[in-house]
# Entry
Amino acid sequence: MMVTKRCSVCGRFRAYEEGDEFCIGCGHEGLDTECACGRPFDYALAEAGDVLHCPRCGRTLRGRDSEFGH
# Structure
């Protein structure tokens, strides 16, 4: 089964198999299947633009997580 995951290092959204752990874009381990608020990322693949926000909590999701710096 394919699920949408987001790399917490480079911020890219991709469709992955459930057991995949490494980002195909940058190779780092750190794929998340949902936002910190619990909203799954299934909506994110169809969205375009420079800015993407979680529709549940409003968190900015484009780019890397703040814990990894800018």
In short: The chain has no helices and three strands. The first strand starts at residue 2 and ends at 7. Residues 64 and 70 are 7 Å apart (CA to CA).
